Automatic annotation (TrEMBL):
This is Sugar ABC transporter ATP-binding protein. SUPFAM superfamilies: P-loop containing nucleoside triphosphate hydrolases. It comes from the Bacteria. InterPro entries: AAA+_ATPase, ABC_carbohydrate_import_ATPase, ABC_transporter-like_ATP-bd, P-loop_NTPase. The lineage of its organism: Bacteria, Pseudomonadati, Pseudomonadota, Alphaproteobacteria, Hyphomicrobiales. CDD domains: ABC_Carb_Monos_I (cd03216).
């Protein structure tokens, strides 16, 4: 059974058609690569799934139920989390403080609320151990590599018990070693039964990490096929329009 299913999703902004009847699904524990040139409709599609935009027409189904996602809070309540390209981390805070930002654990003593620092630190380290990351709870974000920062952002989604994680260009502007670390994190999310949608321009990353690739061009889906049945050359041709569809 699909975790999330999009049926004939369209989106227009006035006279501009950003998405044209896009349909596809993603199953629990599946990693799907979403590829396309700038302006292909990838960002609009992700914003609809994450509750930032509302579709002009079409249907969203989640765990086999028709749903509406009116805002990002509603998406998070469903278990849909987004790791944005800028990661939205506070550089001057520790990994623990970033993971629990806005969701701090507290002791209640009458009108007093005291932060449970030890419990939060222990939980943060548990999450990093699950992800097999070298990041530690007391590490400051400003001192971290790009791969470690991704681990903090992903740990934050695990705290929220995510079922689907949308990852926007997670390997942009980081080193080769850090790319390998991030792709390893994606594999471990899949092994935990969490669906991942990887939005990326990096062909090697998609063909290493994903089970399936969805290709967008000019607001339409032009391909949706298993990675094993495609190639970087074919996807490049689809993105550029040298090949119409697959």
């Amino acid at each position: 059974m699909a975790l999330l299913e999009l049926k004939s999703i369209s989106k227009h902004f006035g006279a501009i058609q950003a998405l044209n009847s896009v349909s596809f699904s993603i199953a629990p524990g599946e990693v799907v690569g979403l590829m396309g040139d700038n302006g292909a409709g990838k960002s609009t599609l992700v914003k609809i799934i994450s509750g930032i935009y509302h579709p002009s027409s079409g249907e969203l189904r989640y765990e086999d139920k028709a749903i509406s996602i009116p805002n990002p809070g509603a998406a998070r309540a469903l278990g849909i989390e987004t790791v944005h390209q800028d990661l939205a981390l506070a550089n001057n805070l520790t990994a623990t403080a970033n993971i629990f930002l806005g969701r701090e654990l507290k002791h209640k003593f009458g009108p007093l609320r005291l932060l449970r620092h030890n419990a939060m630190r222990a939980r943060a380290n548990e999450l990093f151990n699950e992800l097999k990351s070298e990041t530690r709870a007391d590490d400051l974000v400003k001192d971290m590599s790009g791969g470690q920062r991704q681990a903090v952002a992903i740990a934050r989604t695990r705290l929220a018990d995510a079922k689907l994680i949308l990852m926007d260009e997670p390997t942009a502007a980081i080193s080769v070693r850090q790319v390998a670390e991030v792709l390893g994190l994606i594999h471990r999310l899949r092994d935990a039964g969490i669906a991942v949608m990887l939005i990326s321009h990096r062909m090697p990353d998609v063909f290493t990490a994903c089970d399936r690739v969805v290709v967008m061009r000019r607001g339409s889906k032009v391909a949706d096929k298993p990675i094993a049945d495609s190639s970087p050359e074919e996807v490049t041709a689809l993105i550029t329009g040298a090949k119409e569809a697959a």
